Amino acid sequence: QVRLDESGGGLVQPGDSLRLSCVSARNTITDYPMGWFRQTPGNEREIVAAVSWSNDDTYYSDSVKGRFAISRDDAKNTVYLQMNGLKPEDTAVYFCAMKAYNGNHYYILAEEYDYWGQGTQVTVSS
Predict the structure, then answer these.
(1) What's the pLDDT tens digit per position in 43-92?
(2) Residue 101: pLDDT band by 50, 70, 90 thresholds?
(3) How much is the pLDDT for 82?
(4) Angle at 31 between CA 65 and CA 49, to 5 degrees
(5) Do the beta carbons of residue 24 and residue 10 sit within 8 Å?
(6) SS3 track for the chain
(7) In whole angstroms, what is the distance from residue 22 CA to residue 60 CA?
(8) Which string of b and e fits 10-44 if b means at least 16 CB within 10 Å?
(9) Burial readout 60-95 (b: 16 or more C-beta within 10 A, e: otherwise)
(10) Residue 51, Cβ neighbours under 10 Å: how many?
(11) pLDDT band for position 30 (50/70/90)?
(12) Which residues, listed in sequence order, are joined to residue 34 by a DSSP beta bridge?
C-alpha cells in the first residue's frame, strides 16, 4: 500500500514562504506523475501544481503561477512544493497525490490520482 506523508505546513504572514514536502516512505515515486492539491472547507479539492514523472512537464494553476514551484527528488522519494509570496487566499489544507501510471505527462484532475497523503494545513494571516 502506498503511503504519502506531507509536511512543512504552518502559520505564516502574507508574503512569507513555505516549502511543503511529500515523502513516500514505503514505495518509490520514480516513474509516476505527482500533484499537489488544496482544499478549503465546503469546497472541492483543487489542483495547485503537477509534475510528470520525468520532471520535464509541470502545470500550475493560474492562482499560483509565478509564486509556487513543484519539484521532485526521486532518489529521496520526495516531491516538493515551494510556495513564495503567500497570500491569505492560499490558506488551505494541502495534499500531495500520486498517479499509479507511468505516462510521461502531468495530470490535473483529482479523480485521476490513485493515492493521497493526509494533508498539511497552511494558514496565511497577519
Answers:
(1) 999 999 999 988 889 999 999 999 999 999 988 999 999 999 999 999 99
(2) confident
(3) 98
(4) 15
(5) no
(6) CCCEEEECCEEECCCCCEEEEEEECCCCCCCCCEEEEEECCCCCCEEEEEECCCCCCEEECCCCCCCEEEEEEHHHCEEEEEECCCCHHHCEEEEEEECCCCCCCCCCCHHHCCEECCCEEEEECC
(7) 17
(8) eebeeeeebebbbbbeeeebeebbbbbbbeeeeee
(9) bbeebeeebbbebebeebbbbbebeebeeebbbbbb
(10) 24
(11) confident
(12) 51, 98
What span, in angstroms and rounded, lies between the C-alpha atoms of 90 and 17? 11
Euclidean distance between CA atoms 84 and 63, whole angstroms: 12
For residue 16, pLDDT beyond 80: yes
Q: Hey, what's the cell of 59? A: 502545470
Q: Check if the beta carbon of residue 109 is closer than 8 Å to that of residue 41.
A: no
Distance CA 95, CA 48 (A): 10
